[in-house]
Automatic annotation (TrEMBL):
Gene Ontology cellular-component terms listed: periplasmic space
Keywords: Heme, Iron, Metal-binding, Oxidoreductase, Periplasm, Peroxidase, Signal
PANTHER family linked: CYTOCHROME C PEROXIDASE-RELATED (PTHR30600)
Gene source species: Mucilaginibacter psychrotolerans
Protein name, entry field: Cytochrome-c peroxidase
Amino acid sequence: MKNKTFWMVMGGFCLFLYACTKEAQIKETVSNFLGFQKPANFPSPVYKLENNMVTEAGFRLGRSLFYEPRLSRNNTISCGSCHIQSSAFTQHGHDVSHGIDDRLGTRNSPPIMNLAWNKAFMWGGGIYDLDLQPIAPITTHEEMDENLDNVMTKLRLVEKYPTMFKAAFGTEEINTTRFLKALSQFMVMCISANSKYDKVMRNEGGLSFTADEQAGYALFRTKCSSCHQEPLFTDGTFRNNGLAPSPIKDQGLYTATLQEKDRYKFKVPSLRNLSYTAPYMHDGRFLTLNGVFDHYNAELQQTVNLDPLLQQNGKLGISLTADDRTKLTAFLKTLEDADFVTRKDLAEQ
């Protein structure tokens, strides 16, 4: 009897210790959430955080919604289907993205990365508020082919969502505004700023560029930085970079503005995480960086509105020797952020 009592007491004590340990782990997880943190080498964000402060509950809700297939008509496609974390939130392996019913879009999925510093969204523009951006893929025929009213109805029927919305916004009511703000809270936390380049710029860990990386950095600043400005490695503008028009005759920004000066202009992409985001260009036409180098070196087309930076001194393009390519590639690899593509807090839970 005494042995039985002893083991009962010990069992209770172990359960108590386990509960305390678990509670401590939970508290530590909560206390580790710092919200939106601007990297030291980044400018101030464009996104108005004061209108939608990132909270842990809002971030968790946004993450759940990002990976929620009920956002699509037949409940099979989520944002995460075309924006895969291991590919820096692009759809790796496709030239143009595949949506609902395996329908083909017309463009390659752009990465979900450093969006808090973006003034415009989509390859062809037309959206200038991150809170409104998800409406486009949700309602587009080739992507999710759904409407927001149906999405809200479906979410209200899922047991976890009223509780999650209350934690994030103080009410169980699920509406479009809160839905979009929650998605933004997740997306602005998709910050890629922990590459070797960033650590060198911040003087972290005693890191420095190798000779080839330093030479590539010098080449980059001479030949590429006018459009791909540090530290985001894009200036956020829309430019015609001399691509031959695609068979579908995608006219880029012109489709949104109907202004002749915008014909064939597409958003300048960031050069961060290139090893994860192939293929390249708005329609994924180049499978490798060498394909991109070939284009700028000798394959530019004298299309309408070709960017002036690509036609100077009577010559088209950017001269790149084999040695230039090697050194540029060495530098571009310093922009790879392995932490970003493996961060557990950004993954589907």
